Amino acid sequence: MTLRRCWVRFFEIVLEQLDLAAELLHSRNPTQSRLALILVDNAAEYALHRYAVDWLARYPVPYQLPVLERKKLHKKRARVLGQHIKPKIAFARLQNAITADQATFIREAHEFRNQAYHAGRTHDSIITELATTYFSAFLRMLGGLAPGTIWIKSDHMLSPRVRQHLGDNIPLTISTENGIQSLVDSLERSLPVAPQTLSEACRATLEGWLIEIRYCIDSLVQDDDSVSSAAALIRDVQYWSCFWSNAPDEGFTLLDDGTGGAIVDPDQETEWKKLQEDMQGWRPRVSERTLRRWDARIDGLREPSKPGVLLQKYCKLVSEIEPFMKMLSHRCAAFDHYIEELLDDERDAKLRKRLEAEGS
After folding, report:
1. Interatomic CA distance for residues 27 and 15, integer angstroms
2. Residue 2 — very low, low, confident or very high, per pLDDT cuts 50/70/90?
3. Longest alpha-carbon distance in the chain
4. Dihedral over Cα of 69, 71, 74, 76: its sign
5. Which of 167, 141, 139 shows the shortest CA–CA distance to 152?
6. Lowest mean pLDDT among 131-140, 244-253, 265-274, 296-305
7. Cα distance between residue 186 and residue 18, in whole Å
8. Can you tell me whether residue 34 is helix, strand or coil?
9. What are the b/e assignments for 219-241, b being 16+ CB within 10 Å?
10. pLDDT at 46 over 80
11. Helix, strand or coil for residue 195?
């Protein structure tokens, strides 16, 4: 296949996938938005790969270089043309085909795609806005990744999805000066109007998490007699989570002491003592002051012109807030289970009294 034919095929694939992604985004359904995100991310990765293939084909490794130098360059090129997206992003950034923020955004958005596709993390609260933003961001970088000019012949078979964006004027010449922009405009028009921006969706998600965290704290302080204050609760949930996550998996093993009694396995007892010593210098990562700082940082998620920076800040906050929220949720669940056991015991006691009264 010639290079020109490869680029025609490139535009076919990209237009087909982006048009289908736009159609899926119209539903505003999280499942279909995840599929749209996967399609857009795949189109972006394919564009980066096609750009690298084209550039490296035009600039082969010079034979005049020493053998070791040539081997190093061939290894670097092999990494760029491999299966991982990060070397492709770095290469496109090195050639100034994309900006620094665009490179950051692709890396972060690709990680969201991996989580949605492989790890089952759906990100329903922001998935539609993320896919929509990725769609628009990719269109803005398409001109830098496309070749100078391609020609589409009149006998070239195009699908209806592709033809609606190229029009009926075929044979057609597409160049970065004019044709790309008309394609970008056509694809932009196919996108639905989003009710909120990505920054608004990110803020709403994290604000909802903080509301849930504060509700759990207030409920436990009010209802659980073992909780003396909000500060003590915040510290304790982190302490015990850290303690048990580092505790020996097998717990205690009781050994026969030779006299009919039992003793704790000395090796395990040493492990527990060491753990207790290590925990003496432990300091909590989250405090009441941290919650206030999170409020300020969430309010600062306003980077509409730099979606890469926005997504990076959002991911950082998620990595800090989510673990603490899970610890607190487990504490609330444990307290709810304790209350249910008390109610069950109370019901059993009443039932026994009633049965005894009936029996007498």
Report:
1. 19
2. very low
3. 107
4. negative
5. 167
6. 244-253
7. 11
8. helix
9. ebeeebeebeebeebbbbbbeeb
10. yes
11. coil
